[in-house]
């Protein structure tokens, strides 16, 4: 009984499988989406993309042996009549035995083609061709009809051809006549099948060869490739001089049997070309005649790669089975295609010109990364067209544009007409989205979002971009669908608002790695305020009017213990719409130094802080400047070079405060005008921190915390090793209670620098009003001296930069603590010399040289007295209660850094009335006279 039941179950399963096979046999594979990027041939399309350099860095096929190819997942299915959806076109030189053998080999393939076309020129012996073809058809008395003479691209010819096909259903082998002025393979553009196979004269494929190609064409790895069996790779870079000595690697390489053991991408295929019929429409973008009538292998491989990112691939075969070979004749006749390719390269001016204009070589393909830009409307296309064209000129990036479709007002041709005919190299893909009313119903919106998500996901999966870019506009359904597809595909996204487009003209300057990290940096705004509500609200208003490029930016407001009620209420009621808002209020006065130092502690190396005192005002473009610099210098492929840059200033320095002679006017133009290698407007690196608006980097700020903690403990234990750091030729020790003094000490010994803007007339992204406060006890008549114009024009920002971009790191000028030209190596050397003086415990080698690796941050010897970690609360040193006037060091007290104020017990003595300081920590009332300066320290060379 059980065996009978098993037989019945087996019969049922077989019947179900047979029904499934019949049901699906006539359909093409719709599970793989092939984007519709092929414009209908027309005169208008000549302006579509005449010279595209945008090569797609799609996944190059892995090297697969023949056996490995059959383990790839393929969705190949036959037509309902048992044939494969492929048209084979052959090009005979005569109609004798060679053609007969070729047709016979095609009719005996394990997977039969839908049609076999013999391409015959109008001046050949058409009668002989008809007689031979008739012998291979089921009804020899009804030879296939001849295609009328003329242009094969003519629409009337297409109509006649369609009728011809309908009347020849019983004929597998047909003749197609082409005009003498046209190439033989042009007839392939009229095939109705999904695939084409072009064979040169005499090529005899093995019996399993067509089946191998069809299965590969339905795998994700090879679905967008032009396949063949013979080709070559040029091993020279596009920028090199092209000459007859160029290295050409031919595949398959000559071995004992001339076989291909693994698939490999090549620059050109010969003899055999297999691909999707729709891809042939790309040839209309650069017609064969305009190319100087280049040979088929060169023309087909190059144009499909240029315009459709379709790579040419040599397919592996089984060395033990001739049935898998692309041309079984190679067994008996030594292959000569490599010699032919070398000769073609020498003779083909078109091929060399394609290579010279860039990106035509497989060896260069891995350098390129694709970016897909999604456009939902005509308005978005108008807004982004200039940015797209500039972006498309980036040497290592290929740009691809996906449009919503003509039913929504933006099809392929619509965008092609908007883009300039020259200087814009991008591929266009049509999503064919359905029209949606201006006020769609919830169901219509949901349906549109679903269509967008499905279509864009398939496009992303096909193109494999590094980044996708779109505008978050009024079409919420379109944006929602994109977000779903992006989340599913796990591709980084850049999504900005339409009003921010004018502020991101610098995007083409960023590397692919920087673009991939668009959403990585987290910038925090930290405002330090006390009892100046008017100043604080001015700063907050300027922050509210800035452009944040659709980023979430948090705002933290730090209030000291003396903050008045108006300030507290105003800060509490302030609405911040760009991210989270945090409020912190001290219960005990900490002073400006601790207020700044403790205002922020980074959680990771991707968190940045913009520190702003309340008398600062910012430009609407301050965040644009910050983001551009962070992405450019912190997230490039060679970001290890930038480890000594601790931040980016928003303010342009007009004075240098570190000269022994006092405050000195400073204008970088005076330096760069005498230094031809630097542009007059180039940003520069300066060994000074800016306290009037700057973004600080996380690693350096954590290091600063450790340094400050060590300095406080030095004072607590009455140590002298670092209490009075003597930086040569510097007045920094005058700033006894300034956080900036401590920062300068640290960056001097480490050779750190900050990047400063250098625009015309000191135009900056922040300015300072120098109002009454902790360090400014009276209004100064010279307060206006520190005011600078604020940058408000994004175009002006780019125009003033050298070559409209931030310079590369090694092109930035370096200025030392006194604003004199130096080098990074010199700054490091000076800092290490000072460290050696302060830290005699540094390990040295046999030549008495300091081993800096692993010790560079050891600014002093290990503590010989009990050391309290900066992460725990120190125990009191004495059991008796200290006198009221002697205050122990704590994390929230105002600490004087003057060693003279420290008693032997490590406590602070009462300080006299403090000297008024401005916000840079300089005396307001009295500047030191020359007699008060240390005569033993020489003055620096003026900048």
Automatic annotation (TrEMBL):
Enumerate the PANTHER family for this protein: OSJNBA0004B13.7 PROTEIN
InterPro entries on file: Nucleotide-diphossugar_trans (IPR029044)
Protein name, per record:
Uncharacterized protein
The positions making up the signal sequence are 1-29
Q: Does the keyword rRNA processing apply?
A: no
| Compositional bias segments (type: Acidic residues) | 148-167
* Chain residue ranges for the region called Disordered: 136-172, 900-943
State if GTP-binding is listed as a keyword.
no
- Give TM regions: none
Per the record, the domain of life is Eukaryota
The protein's UniProt keywords, in alphabetical order, are: Signal
């Amino acid at each position: 009984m059980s065996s009978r039941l098993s037989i019945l179950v087996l019969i049922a399963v077989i019947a179900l499988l047979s029904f499934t096979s019949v049901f699906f046999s006539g359909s093409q594979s719709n599970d793989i989406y092939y984007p519709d990027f092929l414009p209908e041939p027309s005169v208008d399309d000549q302006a579509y993309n005449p010279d595209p350099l945008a090569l797609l860095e799609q996944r190059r096929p892995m090297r697969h042996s023949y056996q490995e190819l059959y383990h790839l997942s393929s969705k190949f299915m036959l037509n309902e009549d048992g044939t494969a959806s492929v048209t084979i076109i052959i090009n005979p030189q005569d109609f004798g035995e060679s053609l007969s053998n070729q047709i016979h080999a095609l009719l005996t393939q394990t997977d039969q083609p839908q049609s076999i076309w013999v391409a015959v020129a109008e001046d050949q012996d058409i009668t002989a061709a008809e007689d031979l073809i008739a012998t291979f058809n089921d009804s020899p008395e009804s030879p296939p009809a001849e295609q009328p003479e003329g242009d094969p691209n003519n629409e009337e010819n297409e109509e006649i051809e369609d009728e011809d096909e309908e009347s020849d259903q019983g004929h597998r082998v047909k003749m197609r006549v082409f005009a003498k002025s046209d190439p033989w393979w042009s007839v392939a553009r009229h095939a109705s099948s999904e695939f084409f196979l072009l064979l040169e004269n005499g090529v005899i494929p093995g019996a399993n060869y067509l089946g191998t190609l069809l299965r590969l064409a339905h795998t994700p790895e090879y679905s967008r490739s032009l396949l063949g069996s013979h080709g070559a790779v040029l091993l020279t870079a596009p920028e090199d001089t092209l000459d007859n000595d160029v290295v050409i690697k031919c595949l398959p390489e000559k071995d004992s049997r001339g076989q291909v053991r693994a698939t490999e991408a090549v620059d050109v295929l010969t003899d055999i070309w297999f691909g999707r019929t729709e891809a042939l429409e790309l040839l209309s973008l650069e017609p064969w005649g305009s190319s100087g009538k280049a040979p088929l292998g060169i023309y087909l491989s190059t144009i499909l790669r240029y315009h459709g990112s379709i790579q040419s691939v040599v397919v592996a075969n089984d060395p033990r089975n001739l049935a898998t070979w692309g041309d079984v004749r190679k067994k008996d006749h030594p292959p000569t295609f490599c010699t032919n390719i070398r000769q073609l390269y020498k003779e083909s001016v078109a091929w060399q010109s394609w290579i010279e204009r860039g990106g035509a070589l497989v060896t260069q393909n891995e350098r390129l990364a694709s970016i897909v830009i999604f456009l939902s409307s005509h308005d978005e296309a108008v807004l982004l067209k200039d940015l797209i064209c500039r972006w498309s000129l980036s040497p290592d990036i290929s740009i691809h544009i996906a449009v919503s479709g003509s039913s929504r007002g933006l099809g392929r041709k619509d965008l092609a007409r908007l883009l300039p005919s020259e200087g814009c190299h991008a591929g266009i893909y049509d999503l064919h989205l359905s029209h949606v009313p201006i006020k769609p119903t919830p169901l219509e919106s949901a349906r549109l979002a679903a269509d967008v998500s499905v279509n864009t996901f398939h496009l992303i999966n096909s193109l494999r971009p590094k980044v996708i870019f779109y505008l978050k506009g009024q079409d919420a359904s379109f944006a929602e669908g994109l977000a779903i597809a992006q989340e599913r595909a796990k591709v980084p996204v850049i999504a900005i608002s339409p009003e921010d487009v004018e502020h991101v003209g610098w995007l083409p300057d960023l590397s692919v790695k920087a673009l991939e990290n668009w959403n990585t940096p987290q910038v925090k705004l930290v405002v330090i305020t006390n009892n100046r509500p008017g100043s604080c609200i001015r700063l907050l208003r300027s922050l509210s009017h800035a452009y944040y490029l659709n980023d979430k930016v948090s705002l933290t407001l730090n209030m000291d213990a003396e903050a008045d009620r108006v300030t507290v209420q105003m800060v509490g009621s302030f609405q911040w719409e760009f991210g989270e808002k945090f409020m912190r209020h001290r219960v005990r006065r900490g002073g400006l130094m601790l207020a700044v130092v403790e205002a922020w502690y980074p959680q990771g190396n991707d968190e940045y802080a913009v520190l702003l005192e309340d008398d600062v005002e910012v430009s609407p473009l301050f965040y644009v400047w910050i983001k551009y610099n962070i992405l450019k210098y912190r997230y490039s492929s060679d970001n290890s070079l930038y480890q000594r840059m601790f931040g980016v200033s928003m303010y342009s320095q007009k004075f240098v405060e570190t000269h022994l002679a006092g405050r000195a006017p400073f204008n970088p133009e005076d330096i760069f005008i005498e230094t031809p290698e630097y542009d007059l407007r180039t940003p520069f690196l300066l060994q000074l921190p800016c306290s009037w608006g700057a973004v600080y980097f996380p690693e350096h700020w954590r290091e600063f915390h450790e340094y400050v903690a060590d300095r406080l403990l030095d004072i607590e234990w009455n140590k002298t090793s670092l209490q009075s750091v003597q930086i040569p030729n510097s007045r920094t020790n005058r700033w006894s209670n300034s956080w900036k003094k401590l920062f300068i000490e640290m960056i001097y010994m480490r050779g750190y620098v900050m990047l400063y803007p250098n625009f015309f007339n000191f135009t900056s992204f922040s300015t300072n009003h120098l109002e009454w406060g902790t360090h400014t006890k009276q209004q100064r008549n010279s307060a206006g001296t520190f005011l600078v114009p604020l940058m408000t024009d994004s175009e002006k920002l780019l125009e003033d930069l050298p070559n409209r971009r931030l310079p590369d790191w090694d092109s930035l000028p370096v200025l030392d603590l006194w604003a004199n030209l130096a080098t990074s190596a010199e700054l490091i050397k000076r800092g290490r010399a000072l460290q050696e003086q302060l830290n005699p415990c540094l390990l040295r080698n046999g030549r008495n040289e300091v081993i800096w690796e692993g010790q560079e941050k050891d600014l002093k010897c290990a503590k010989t007295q009990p050391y309290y970690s900066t992460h725990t609360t120190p125990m009191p040193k004495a059991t008796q209660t200290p006198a009221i006037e002697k205050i122990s060091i704590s994390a929230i007290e105002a600490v004087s850094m003057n060693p003279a104020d420290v008693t032997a017990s490590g406590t602070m003595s009462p300080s006299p009335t403090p000297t008024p300081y401005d916000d840079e920590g300089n005396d307001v009332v009295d500047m030191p006279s020359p007699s008060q300066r240390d005569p033993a320290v020489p003055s620096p060379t003026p900048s």
